[in-house]
Amino acid sequence: MIAGGADRNAGIFDRIRALLDERLSGAPAATLRAPFPRVLASLRDGVAFCFIGGVKTPEREAFAVFSLPVALFYPVRIIVPASERARFAALAPLSLATLLADRTLRTSVLRSRSLGSRVDSLLAQAASPHLHAEFDEALRMLFAKRLDYLVEYPTIASYGARSLGQADAFAALPFIEEPEPVFARVMCPKTPWGRRLVERIDAILRVERTTPAYRQIVEAWADPDDLPTIRNVYDNAFLKSE
């Protein structure tokens, strides 16, 4: 989601929210801007709102219900300052587990976020990294070299670099653990209200996700080099996932 600036409301989840608003009621729904940890806390309390972009995990299924996937994020990369590319490339084959074990290297993790089971497991086994509540906070720290690397999607890192006025500020490097694609969903409270809304959203998604227009939403902001991979996952996993 993009909350401000020239690209306000042009994020992937913004565009999906607009589509769902139109199909559900024909008018924009009320929106609330909040850090993700607050979103999770509110859903645990049964507050009647939904978040577009939640990743389904066993822990979250205790208090939330999830729609069909609405978007996918892939691949996740090690993001480093562009000036440090050679330093990290020299470590090839690059391993996230090895980086996390190196206490001289600084990283940060978005509080309460899931990057998929493989990455989540590695992060859980690591010594506690710095935690942040907003994407731009961590990207600014990386830009200022107060962090050495981030585990992030190139889409988010490249947009953050442009927001800093430095389009080529970061380099994205693959790592050997080969994390799986992560599917984002609409996440609602596990209440009768939430279940009913997810049923309505799923009915819309079953129709819309097969259209070229919806594919364009999912591919927005993606690096052109990643598009063949994204399209393959879209056809062979995303559309088939429940």
- Given as residue ranges, the uncertain stretches (5+ residues, pLDDT < 50) are none
User: Helix count, per DSSP?
Assistant: 10
Order of strands, main sheet, comes to: 1-8-2
Strand content: 15-25%
Q: What class would the helix/strand composition place it in? A: alpha+beta
What is the global morphology? globular
Order of helices and strands: HHEEEHHEHEHEHEEHHH
Keywords:
single chain; 242 residues; 3-stranded antiparallel sheet; 8 strands; 17% strand
Structure description:
Helices cover 40% and strands 17% of the residues. The chain contains ten helices and eight strands. Helix 5 (117-125) links the parallel strand 4 (108-110) and strand 5. The mean pLDDT is 91.
Describe the structure concisely for a colleague.
This protein has 242 residues and is of the alpha+beta class. The protein is built from 10 helices and 8 strands.
